[in-house]
Design goal:
The protein is mostly helical. α3 crosses α5. It has one domain. It has five helices and no strands. It is 71% helix and 0% strand. It is a multi-pass membrane protein. Keywords: Cell membrane, Membrane, Transmembrane, Transmembrane helix. It is found in: Cell membrane. Pfam families: PLDc_N (PF13396).
Length: 84
């Protein structure tokens, strides 16, 4: 069997779905990364412990909307004038 015949046989035996399986998991990976980024951002924010717990519970309860609400509407709104 020559090299070109070997490559042709290998190409014919490969299922095209085997090479694209990861695209099915890509949204899940992105959601998990988005969720982890929100958790890190919540923990490092300047909110009180009670508020942080509330926001973390919201991200657990609403896996996509919780982090989205955090990043769009809540993050950066804590009292910046408060003296520590």
């Amino acid at each position: 069997m020559s090299t070109s015949e070997f490559y042709l046989a290998a190409a014919e035996s490969t299922n095209p779905n085997d090479t694209w399986w990861f695209l099915g998991f890509l949204p899940i990976f992105l959601l998990v990364a988005f969720w982890i980024a929100a958790l890190i951002s919540i923990i490092s924010s300047g909110y009180t412990l009670a508020a942080k717990v509330l926001f973390i519970v919201a991200t657990f309860t609403l896996p996509f909307l919780g982090p989205l609400i955090w990043f769009l509407f809540v993050r950066g709104k804590e009292d910046k004038n408060r003296r520590v």
